[in-house]
Design goal:
Blueprint lengths: L15 H12 L5 H15 L4 E8 L4 E8 L5 H7 L5 H12 L5 E4 L9 H9 L4 E9 L2 E12 L10 H27 L15 H11 L4 H8 L3 H14 L5 H10 L19
Antiparallel strand pairs: 1-2, 1-5, 3-4, 4-5
Length: 280
């Protein structure tokens, strides 16, 4: 997911210390899902480049980790299901690997997912060019087996994650704190919904608008989306404006994050369709 306004752009790309400080400071302002997504795509991505981050937080009601998936590339439905399911063999395996590493950041090779039942998700990870994943989390003090939060990062640049384990070790308290704060605020917002609160017209988002949201998630421009769908760039722009209004979003990044949290993008195909004639 790319945005025109990248607040981390002022950081020197050659100064990781400054980037860490900026990322830590900006994490304190994160309170909503869309803010977390924007933060990971700007400040955090300068330290840990990635196209996929899976965030898990322990839910005391269900007594298990609850996962959210933030991806800027299209993934197979079977893989999305496994990433979002705390009881899936994939997520259980990655957590076990982290615990075996004694709570330190761990780089796990996708090819090592040798279980027969993991064949589909392993192939989907490889198809997405995720040769390795970097995992880390936080456990309860003095109780390492009781995981409070768990995060998975994946990048298409093979070998790029391994050298970043040290950075993740420094950033994990800030990632954990930001994600925990998001959980609390989101629950409060849902529980304290009032007529004055802006509403999201989920039912009003059309199939075509969901298609466009899927392309926005992949960072495509209006013209690129128009070329994929066989419509004009102006028509795409009009659709985007309607999407922003329906999802109560200020920009594309917020719209994508809101759509992801509402599961509007599940199983929406972004495969190019047969090109119809250009429509004004």
């Amino acid at each position: 997911m790319t945005t025109n306004d990248n607040p981390a752009a002022t950081s020197s790309p050659n100064d990781p210390v400054e980037a860490i400080v900026r990322a830590a400071e900006s994490a304190l302002t994160v309170r909503r899902r869309y803010q977390f997504f924007v933060w990971t795509q700007s400040y955090l991505s300068r330290l840990i480049p990635h196209q996929l981050v899976v965030c898990g937080s322990y839910d005391r009601t269900s007594r298990e980790l609850v996962f959210d998936v933030f991806n800027s590339v299209s993934l197979e439905p079977a893989l999305m299901d496994a990433l979002g399911d705390a009881r899936s063999l994939l997520m259980q395996h990655w957590q076990a690997c982290w615990l075996e590493a004694r709570g330190k950041p761990a780089v796990i090779a996708t090819a090592d997912l040798a279980f027969t039942s993991l064949g589909i998700v392993r192939d989907a990870l490889l198809a997405a060019q995720f040769q390795h994943v970097l995992v880390h989390g936080m456990s309860r003090p003095q109780r390492p087996q009781e995981i409070e939060s768990f995060f998975v990062f994946a990048a298409q640049d093979d070998g790029a994650l391994a050298p970043l384990a040290g950075r993740l070790e420094l950033m994990i308290p800030h990632i954990h704190g930001a994600w925990q704060r998001v959980q609390v605020v989101e629950r409060d917002v849902v529980g304290a919904s009032t007529p004055q609160q802006p509403t999201v017209r989920v039912g009003g988002v059309t199939q075509r608008e969901r298609e466009i949201l899927s392309w926005l998630r992949e960072g495509k421009s209006n013209q690129q989306i128009a070329d994929e769908l066989g419509i004009s760039a102006l028509t795409v722009k009009n659709h985007v404006q309607k999407i922003l209004r329906k999802l109560n979003a200020a920009n594309r990044a917020q719209a994508v994050a809101q759509a992801m949290s509402l599961q509007l993008l599940e199983r929406v195909s972004t495969q190019p369709a047969a090109r119809p004639r250009l429509v004004p």
